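Bug report

Summary: structure tokens for PAR14 polymerase differ between web form and batch submission.
Environment: batch mode, default settings.
Steps: 1) Submit the sequence below via batch. 2) Compare with the web form result.

Sequence submitted:
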Amino acid sequence: DSAEASPSVVFENTERCRPECLRILLETISGLTVDADFTIEWIPEINVAVATFIKSIDTKKFVEKCSQHKRVKEYKMTARLLESTQTIKAENLPDSISTDFLTVYFENPRNGGGPVSDVQLFPEENSAIITFCGHKGNT
């Protein structure tokens, strides 16, 4: 398809692979460096890690390489592209957070962001709902 591939790759079933091990494994498979070329976000509650590439790479080919890699198979992990979404929920926000700060933060490409159309703060929950502009030019 003509849609641009996601810069983020989801790794599921990460419970058998320690964070340091996954970092080294992803550097080996990609030939890139964590922090300089990509970041890893851990979601231990659901045994998932998300690698987001700052440097532009073919993430579809990267997912294929990961799926065929011996160590990834040994750890029984799976890799797939992260689906695009227009709305996310940010939790555990500081009391002093502003909609302006969240807008700027989530528009930053380094954070995997894009143009933001709306931010709704929920101070009683220390959370916010961030809505991104549509991928086809909708706002």
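Above is the batch result. After comparison, the two runs are identical; trailing whitespace caused the diff. The CA atoms of residues 105 and 111 lie 7 Å apart. Strands lie at 8-12, 38-43, 48-53, 78-81, 87-90, 116-122, 127-132.
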